[in-house]
Amino acid sequence: MLHTNLNVNEQGHLTFAGIDTTVLAKEYKTPLYVIDEDCVRRKCRAYIGAMQKFFGKDSSALFASKALSFKEIYRVVKEEGMSVDVVSGGEIYTAKEAGFPMERVYFHGNNKTDDEIAFAMDCNVGFFMADCIEELDSINTLAGKRNITQKIILRLTPGIDTHTYEAVRTGQVDSKFGTAIETGQAMEIVKYALTLPNISLEGFHCHVGSQVFDGQTFCDSADIMIDFIVAVKEKLGYEARILNLGGGFGVRYVEEDPHLDIEKTIEEISIHVKEKCQAVNIDVPKILMEPGRSIVADAGITLYSVGSVKTITGYKSYVAIDGGMTDNPRYALYKSQYSALIANKANEKADFCATIAGKCCESGDLIAEDMMLQKCQKGDILAVLTTGAYNYSMSSNYNRIPRPPIVMIKDGKSRIAVKRETYEHVAKNDL
Ligand code: LLP
Predict the structure, then answer these.
(1) What are φ and ψ of residue 176, in 5° steps?
(2) Quick one: DSSP state of residue 362?
(3) pLDDT value of position 175
(4) In Å, what is the CA distance from 320 to each residue of 147, 327, 340, 343?
(5) CA of 309 to the centre of ligand 1 (A)
(6) What SS3 state is found at 59?
(7) CA torsion, points 419, 420, 426, 431, in degrees to nearest 10?
(8) Of 73, 132, 174, 189, which one's alpha carbon is 20 to 30 angstroms from that of 255?
(9) DSSP conformational letter for 378
(10) How many alpha carbons fall within 13 Å on the CB side of residue 261?
(11) Quick one: pLDDT at residue 174?
(12) Which residues 6+ apart lie within 8 Å of 220 measured at CB?
């Protein structure tokens, strides 16, 4: 099986985190997001453990909560000692309502509004990952009004191309995020930040992209960032205390995807960073990393009911499900590959070539094309695997379809963590 939390029981049913998925589908109805809490916790421990082992007690891992944001997930990652990366007032609000310690919150985003900045300050968010000059001015003014000094980390672009698909590449020079080192603009923005009285510049940040499977990409961006720290020290007399290397560790969606060992990769990066710092004669800064996908992706599956199987003679077969691009827009957006199977026929041969279609009025509403599945019919349960990241968090109410609930599994027991939306929810702001 693709991940260790997947198995098949004696009845030939797919199990997830030790529970028969057909039982979950019956109990909670479909479509249904299922999150394996123990798996999320294991991943948090792998990151925190490796960061502290290889970079020292001071270092830390931030969960990039854009990957999966709801109250219970903030409680889980809080208990595991993670910090969090948030990207909007809504994520800050959710974390706060969940009782997440605000000093461990890092506020990202390339265009934080003044209202969001003020809200974040009123919530005592620990760090702003500042993106541009306009934002520095707003932070400085709003911090001044509150008589506080706001800690910030500057987001910079090291100019690394990660070979991932375009929509998730963020570290290259012509990115909408941060300020480029190559053009000299990063030096200018550091110089400017150091003049602002209500800001405390703590360090620098970079994020090269998503679905990265090699440590070398992180080593390359660390080299550029460390050289920049040295250049700033020489030119402006300021030495960064924090270096955030971003997120992006890859996960397996399909059998062909490689497996990335979190601990080994962090060790590889740490050896490189320490050698580099020694070579340029600076202390190793406090290192942060901010994984999102690799914490939650394989901790999630989505269960659907098959509604129809339509074979267009001489062409193709569509398996239509009771969800689709509203709960998982990633195929429609990026042609992202998934693995899927018929949960109640998990032991049967996957010899039926099918395109999985959602229920939206849109031909592009697909989850996979020409995928090998078990033969199926109305009433069967389809499980789409590795849906823990960027599925619920990117879901929508297109066609006024209510969002599915999230069920969490811990120690072999399931519970509702997010309720199913109703038609009332969907129309609740309409006057
Ligand atoms: N830090 C920053 C600044 C980021 O922009 C991101 C992701 C992360 C951390 C976490 O990256 P991860 O470890 O999850 O790869 N919606 C797309 C992914 C967009 C990622 C945006 N930034 C998808 O569904 O693939």
Answers:
(1) -80, -10
(2) -
(3) 85
(4) 57, 14, 13, 15
(5) 35
(6) coil
(7) -40
(8) 73
(9) T
(10) 5
(11) 83
(12) 158, 160
Active-site residue, from 44, 123, 353, 361: 361
Compute the distance between CA of residue 133 and CA of residue 118 in angstroms, rounded to an integer.
Answer: 17
Per-residue pLDDT reduced to its tens digit, 174-223: 889 999 999 999 999 999 999 999 999 999 999 989 999 999 999 999 99
The backbone torsions φ and ψ at residue 115, rounded to the nearest 5 degrees and listed phi first, read -65, -40
Beta-carbon contacts of residue 308 (< 8 Å; ≥ 6 apart): 318, 319, 320, 378
pLDDT score recorded for residue 173: 81
Residue partners of 381: CB distance under 8 A and separation at least 6: 21, 22, 25, 30, 303, 304, 305, 306, 342, 343, 344
Residues 6+ apart with CB under 8 A from 240: 201, 202, 203, 204, 229, 232, 285
Is the pLDDT at 226 greater than 60, yes or no? yes
Contact at 8 Å (CB) between 290 and 63? Answer: yes
For the whole model, what pTM was predicted? 0.97
Distance 248 CA to ligand 1 centre (A): 6
**What gap in Å lies between CA 205 and CA 232, rounded to an integer?**
14
The strand pairing partners of 16, in sequence order, are 6, 19
SS3 letters for 314-336?
A: CCCEEEEECCCCCCCCHHHHHCC
Residue nearest to atom 16 of ligand 1 (CA): 390
231-240 pLDDT, tens digit per residue, is: 999 999 999 9
Per-residue pLDDT averaged across 77-94, rounded?
Answer: 98
Joined tokens for residue 161:
């191309």
The chain-wide mean pLDDT, for the chain, equals 96
Does residue 64 sit in helix, strand or coil? Answer: strand
Is 361 one of the annotated active-site residues of the chain?
A: yes
CA angle, 3 then 342 then 348, to 5°: 90
Q: Are the CB atoms for 9 and 18 separated by under 8 Å?
A: no
Cα-Cα end-to-end distance for the chain = 49
Residue 1: closest CA among 302, 410, 383: 383
Nearest Cα residue to 388 out of 65, 35, 3: 35
Pocket of ligand 1 (CB under 6 A): 64, 67, 85, 108, 168, 170, 207, 210, 246-249, 290-294, 330, 390
Q: Output the CA 316–ligand 1 centroid distance in Å.
A: 34
